[in-house]
Amino acid sequence: MGFSYQARALPKPGMEKMVEVAMQAFAEWVQTQPGLLHIHQLKDLDSGELVGISFWDRKEDCERALALSAGAPEAAAKQRAIAEALQGPLVTRSYDVIWQREPRST
Predict the structure, then answer these.
(1) Cα 56 vs. chain centroid, distance in angstroms?
(2) What is the C-alpha radius of gyration for the chain, rounded to an integer number of angstroms?
(3) Could you read off the pLDDT of 5-51 as tens digits, one per residue?
(4) Model-level pTM?
(5) Which of 3, 4, 17, 19 is nearest to 90 (CA)?
(6) Domains of the chain
(7) How far apart are CA 80 and CA 94, in angstroms?
(8) Is 36 helix (H, G, I), strand (E, B) or coil?
């Protein structure tokens, strides 16, 4: 039915905008990748934690996009900069989509 990938990041104080911009840049790039259905960036109102959630046709589509992203020439420097801006490690999770509901039409 589909696949979802989630990345959670808690920025250090003063680094929130930098991490938001980095996540948004990744979202802009990944939206060109085959199989992506939706991508969302959320911010926890209490903790300030940032959450990126993407939905894909297939797990393989997501894995291919992540591998391409990690293999980009500037990827290592970007990953180091983001890691230094976080209070802890980036936490990722993968999910099989077992059902979905579309909004009702009015």
Answers:
(1) 12
(2) 15
(3) 999 999 999 999 999 998 898 888 899 999 999 999 999 999 999 99
(4) 0.87
(5) 19
(6) 3-96 (3.30.70.100)
(7) 22
(8) strand
